[in-house]
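ERR on first pass: missing label on line 2. Operator R.T. fixed the label and resubmitted. Corrected input:
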Amino acid sequence: MASTSQPPLRFTSHKNFVYRLVFATLTGRTIQISQIRPSSPTNPGLAPHEISFLRLLESITNGSQMEISYTGTILVYKPGLITGSSPGVATSSGGVVRHELPAGCNRGVSYYLLPLCLLAPFSKAPIKVLFTGPGVITSSTPTGDMSVDSVRTAILPLYNQFGIFNNIELRILRRSNPGPNGRGGGGEVQLVFGHQLRLPKTLHLMNAGRIKKVRGVAYSVGVSASNNARMIETARGVLNPLVPDTYIFSDVSSAPLVPAPEKSNPSAKKKIGLGFGLSLVAESSTGCLFSADVASPPAGGEAPEDIGKRCAYQLLEAVSKGGCVAPAAVPTMLGLMTMGSEDVGRIQVGRDVIAEESTIQLARDLTKFGAPGWGLRDASGENENGDVIISVVGRGIGNVGRKVA
Amino acid sequence: MVGKRKREAAVVSRTTKVDEEEEKTTPQTETTDASATDVFRKFFEAQFQPLEVPGGQVTRGDESDEEDSEDEDFEEGSKSGSDWDGLSGEEDEAPVEVVEHRDIKSQDLLDKKARKAFMTSKPPSYSEEPKPAKKKAKKEKSDDDEEDAMDADNLKNDLALQRLLKESHLLESANELAPTGKNRIKALDLRMQELGAKASLYKQKMPTAHRRGIKEKAEMKEDRRRREAKENGIILEKPAPKSNPASTKRRERGVGGASIGKFAGGALNLSKRDVAAIQGPRRTTKGKGRGRGRR
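pass 2 clean. output:
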């Protein structure tokens, strides 16, 4: 790329790892991340899920280079073009990139899905990725990832506001909760993101509206379906008095099998990823989405009623933070706004949302990538509620692959 | 008897039990008390203001939604007042039972639909509301005639609109929608072609000299227009690019023509390739390889 002459941007620590890589790819800047877990005595350097994400980036881009130091504590990433999954790439079959997650992965698959979706609109060809392997966890995880259902029902609809809505699918082929010790799972998820554009629309979202309905998915993998009913019952008990239009759907599936070869039986398989969980999404009258996710811990020992109740309360908390964006959707929304046309987009967020560590980290990283700083002011008018309005000037870079020469 | 009929109609919404009891009670009271009370009432009304019968009025007030004019009402109320009193006493003992019929099946169906809409692989589109199924398609016969008339009217308007859209380019200057003169012929031509006419009205068969003359005249006119515009310094639209597809395209051969080679000067000329194609693939000498031989 043309950015070769520019010196690499330097970052430290493993925090906000994926979004740094995503913005590096989108802006075409080389980055160097150093001091990745330097003081950890057992696992210094990049973790398995981070390596896996780098592999994913490599398979959907063309010409990206990455160098990892001997200890894994320093990474230099030189981005290439986002080509998507065009047929003929080595890793793909029939235009679908097959991405295997390692067994030691303790992050949910949404860890990969969210940044991938952020890259996808700017790709050259549609992005089709199949996540398989012994590390795919579709439920929410103790490490703080949301479930795939929430990605589909709370994050993907947001792209609609930027004019990205065609041919987007997230197929959940097999569900899985985290395996023992929160590592591994046997799920299978396919993402199809077929709407590529030059520049996303400028967004002005200033009215949060009022919550008009709540939808949800209760899933149980390899355990009794009554868990679903119990979660739904308690969650509805909390939510129904507040929002009568509450529907929670139940999805029951059997436990996935992953190969576990033994000496005597090399083709042995074992069940993995049993558990249950709940994903709730609240939609406001203006189309703002708030989601909550709770799943049973890998160690077990929590009643479905507690899960349902916690999830309902978590949803209420997310709504109570106010603004038009849930904390989980902040990187997606602000990232797309930054990549938009050179125009000022405005978005209203709750004070607690902007005060979150991840949001502030995102802002710092974006300024480092050369994005103009955010303009902040207190919301005024009828729907202020102590919210803050963020004005974001788009960079107007958009899709390099779609630029007309 | 008017009063009785009316009352029954009003009580329809109650449970059937009450209805039966009422029917049991009313006939006797009607026969015995009706005449006596009537006489008393008439006498009283002649002396004083019309009577207010508390029981009858109250029950009527809350039950009926199709009350007629005031005075008629009153008469009926007072007429049936005596037998109604007995009934209202019974009502106090057995409170009105409200039976609500809810279609469980349809609720279930809605559930399924919502599930289907939400649990797909696509991100759910929240903005769209599920459309209620069309239930009142053909409910009342009396409305049918009106609807038919409306339908016919709509159809007519639709046709007119379609025509207008298709032929609007003919109506540049004309204000009226029905074209006249040349435009009418053109519109007619368009419609006929749409209906499947083989050739346009303007592609009539005519002597070549005639057609040539028409063409020449048109060209001359256009030339003159352009020349005059140029002389007057008016900029006109660019002349339409002359297209002569007939010369560039390969001409279609007749049915009886040769499918191979080139017919020129009364002789069919075959190229080397044509000859090879006719001869077909050369066989290998032994006929060992059954497939196609190499050329």
